[in-house]
Design goal:
77% of the residues lie in helices and 0% in strands. With 516 residues, the protein is an all-alpha fold.
Length: 516
């Protein structure tokens, strides 16, 4: 009843004249129900200096992590010559990294919820810097028999660091920016830089390999990781759920081993064909472990991935679309690297520079995507982006063996396809992390990061399998051109599958442009 006596105080000022006077003297005393929403609607540009600094630290980190995925792709032939990798084993340099990055993402995402995302973020970057240093030093061994093993161990350590840093960084970003236009803008810039990082990695790899040595593709990480480790503790606040969750060890083990089995099986199939016993064992083992994972998650009190959350339409289908987006675009870089170097005879430097146009396209797409979502919906961004990507990936089917004509087709097609792909990626990030409370953001970003890592991991083995099966092991320029063409057709089909999934299963999912 004490409340009922305090209410009449503001009530005696209902007349227009006192209201105007009161507005000048004490603006906060007016209820002002209508101006409130208008102010919050116009608030998205309100990015404080601290938020800008947080965003800068997180974006630099995500960019560096993205660079790591592709920086060695262009340098693979040089690494093979220097360390004695066979042609069939070259892809393990990229796959060992991506395997550990994909397999342990959910596990480290939950560890971040337990001990704090900031701690995991900073610790993983320190590990990444040390692993990069070790990877670069491995090259000094030259032709010694142990050099390939040392390099692969360093790549595994880099992958584990990425598995920890990516979901932690993304969770810090989504919890620092409230859901709505501000978060969409942050995710748009993050997506643009992340995708640009893949392209920049290809360019940097080519430049460093031609001008210096491929070992500098490792060393380039060290100063960036060091700078972030020194700056982040003063800028980023600790983030963890109020209620500390328990570690679902059986769930973490089954999903991690399932991912490892699946990727290993696909990689073996790419090298030795689908009838290979090891490939079949990996694929069947992965499927069994995934089934066991779902059974475990139904029974434990605090599951690694609550099936209720995974059952949300935006989480389940959004992450599937994200995985397809990363499968198609990152594997396309692999296919075009083969085409440029093996069919057109480009050097690593020239091939890397050729991907600059794709990088510009992804940056443009990342900047445009939040505006498209704000004016329409995530569904529009997902479908329009997928259609654009499919059309301009399909155009690459007409690539020939003449350099001038091929580049006249490849450059504009990759630019426009990159815009479409980035619309899908930003749409997926917004879709998969929206409508969830902050306490579930670690899980949501862990799932989104896993979709990203798995897509990147599976893309190269899948397309490598297609190329190998089409060429039947023949490595002539014309055979590789034919194999790449068939793989591009498969790539285009996968993009169209994503468009259909978005249109059918996310047709009612819309992201509101303004806060309520």
């Amino acid at each position: 009843m004490a409340m009922s006596r305090t209410k009449p105080a503001p009530a005696p000022t209902p007349t227009p004249a006192p209201a105007l006077a009161a507005e000048k003297r004490q603006p906060s005393s007016r209820p002002a129900p209508r101006p409130g929403p208008l102010i919050s609607t116009d608030q998205p540009p309100l990015l404080t200096g601290r938020l800008k600094l947080i965003l800068a630290v997180l974006l630099v980190t995500q960019f560096m992590l993205a660079v790591d995925f592709s920086i060695l792709n262009v340098a693979l032939p040089a690494i093979g010559d220097g360390l004695g990798f066979s042609l069939s084993n070259l892809q393990w340099i990229a796959t060992t990294f991506a395997l550990s990055a994909a397999g342990f993402t959910l596990f480290f995402g939950r560890i971040g919820d337990l001990i704090g995302r900031k701690k995991i973020f900073i610790g993983s970057l320190a590990l990444l810097g040390l692993a990069s240093l070790a990877g670069g030093l491995a090259s000094l061994a030259g032709g010694l028999a142990t050099s390939p093993e040392v390099l692969l161990i360093a790549r595994v350590a880099q992958g584990l660091a990425t598995a920890a840093a990516t979901p932690a960084g993304l969770a810090l970003l989504t919890t620092s920016f409230p859901e709505g236009p501000l978060r969409q803008k942050a995710l748009g810039i993050n997506g643009a830089l992340m995708s640009a990082g893949f392209t920049a990695g290809a360019i940097l790899g080519g430049v460093l390999t031609d001008v210096l040595s491929w070992r500098w593709a490792f060393f380039i990480n060290v100063p960036v990781a060091l700078a972030v480790v020194l700056i982040a503790p003063a800028v980023i606040k600790e983030s963890r759920p109020a209620a500390r969750p328990k570690l679902d060890l059986p769930g973490a083990l089954t999903v991690t081993l399932g991912l490892l089995g699946l990727v290993y099986g696909l990689t073996r199939a790419g090298e030795h064909g689908w009838s290979d016993a090891h490939a079949l064992a990996g694929l069947i083992g992965g499927a069994v472990l995934f089934a066991a994972f779902f059974l475990v998650e139904r029974k434990v009190d605090e599951p690694l991935v609550p099936l209720k959350t995974l059952g949300r339409r935006n989480v389940a289908w959004g992450n599937l679309l994200g995985m397809l987006a990363f499968v198609t675009e990152t594997s396309l870089v692999y296919l075009l690297t083969l085409y440029l170097q093996k069919t057109l005879g480009f050097s690593p430097l020239s091939a890397g520079i050729s991907f600059g146009v794709l990088g510009i396209g992804t940056v443009v797409g990342g900047l445009v995507a939040p505006r498209v979502i704000a004016r329409t919906s995530t569904l529009t961004a997902l479908i329009a982006g997928g259609v654009i990507q499919a059309v301009f990936t399909g155009v690459l089917l007409f690539l020939g063996t003449t350099t001038g004509a091929a580049m006249g087709l490849l450059l504009p097609a990759t630019f426009l396809g990159g815009i479409g792909n980035m619309l899908v990626i930003v749409g997926f990030m917004v879709t998969a992390t929206s409508g969830l409370p902050d306490k579930e953001q670690g899980l949501a970003t862990g799932l989104a990061s896993m979709a990203q890592q798995v897509g990147i991991t599976l893309g190269t083995p899948i397309m490598s399998t297609v190329v190998t099966a089409t060429t039947a092991g023949v490595a002539t320029a014309s055979a590789i051109h034919h194999g790449v063409t068939v793989a591009i057709a498969v790539n285009t089909a996968l993009v169209l599958v994503g468009v259909v999934i978005a249109a059918v299963f996310l047709r009612t999912r819309k992201t509101e442009a303004a806060p309520r």
